[in-house]
């Protein structure tokens, strides 16, 4: 079974890392031959996620489009093409339209509410080339759609009846739990993300200010973004993939605030799940998939109002025992529900079923070098 994965970014980016890269070794152990081709390579990733640098970004996209055309010409060598968030993010879905005629089944995977427009922080000059309608168009073109939660599945079913939910996996061998929590002289409340999502910390600004005033030993550590607010003691730290595990272990409490809007319902709890895997008790906004991910009071806390955020954070700050109890339960939950050896078989089954169904409906299809029974 040969599978070509078309992703937009290299493994440093969370979406392709969680949906594709970390599952490839498991699929290969199951007998698959996997090729992963990002639109933007590792050498260009930092520039691609930075503001400005429009000439460099135009060059990257032009080169990426050429590589996508090359992939299109090679598509029939594979048993299936797996497209994450779109083969090319701008303009009409030309690549997907041509893939449909290539006699190779296509799975379209999207793990965010990308059908809802959000202004880009990194490349606003290309916003006008992004159409929210293309998500539905690509979904309709695909042999099957794969999403991580029911909210996105409901949207996808408007365009395609073959929709399967495959949750995001967590590499529990890499993201191991931290040592037990102790009552120390400093309590670190953490947030991990990017420059585009750090703005959501303003949603709990009042709660953070209250907590910092109530507990002089508390500091907010922002990893991967920028945030400052009067009365909130803040440390800014650059996110590093190589140091990510240690950066999680240095936190006492994790946070995932989200706006109370439709876009948030498409999120899949990545930050909260990472905290849970790392043995860091998390507090998230009570919306969307967070409500399925966290059992309030047992594997984490969910809050909506400023008072609820203050209450949840305060409980965790005051009790190392509670932090340890939540951390242990959360880690066990991740191992049982989201470990790679749990999600890997789900993805394998979806790929095999998609290939089998496509070949049954297209008897003259030769497929790639492998076979559905490989």
Structure write-up:
The chain folds into 2 domains: 2-169 and 340-361, 3-Layer(aba) Sandwich (Rossmann fold), CATH 3.40.50; 187-337, Rossmann fold (3-Layer(aba) Sandwich), CATH 3.40.50.2000. It has 14 helices and 12 strands. The chain has helices at residues 14-19, 24-29, 42-48, 54-74, 94-100, 133-141, 150-156, 205-214, 244-249, 270-277, 290-293, 306-318, 320-337, 340-361; strands spanning 2-7, 33-38, 80-84, 106-109, 144-147, 163-165, 187-192, 218-223, 234-237, 253-256, 282-285, 301-303. β4, α6 (133-141) and β5 form a beta-alpha-beta unit. It starts with a strand and ends in a 13-residue tail after the last helix. Residues 369-374 have low confidence and may be disordered.
Strand-residue proportion: 5-15%
Shape: globular
- Output the radius of gyration: 21 Å
Q: Give the distance, in angstroms, between the N- and C-terminal Cα atoms.
A: 5 Å
Strand order of the largest sheet: 2-1-3-4-5-6
Structural class: alpha/beta
The number of helical runs is: 14
The percentage helix is 25-40%
Ranges with pLDDT <50 over ≥5 residues? 369-374
- What is the N-to-C succession of helices and strands? EHHEHHEHEHEHEEHEEHEHEHEHHH
Number of domains: 2
CATH fold naming of the largest domain = Rossmann fold
Quantity of strands, as a count = 12
How would you name the CATH homologous superfamily of the largest domain? Glycogen Phosphorylase B
Described by strand count, sense and barrel closure, the largest sheet is: 6 strands, parallel
- In CATH, the architecture of the largest domain is 3-Layer(aba) Sandwich
What does the average pLDDT come to?
91
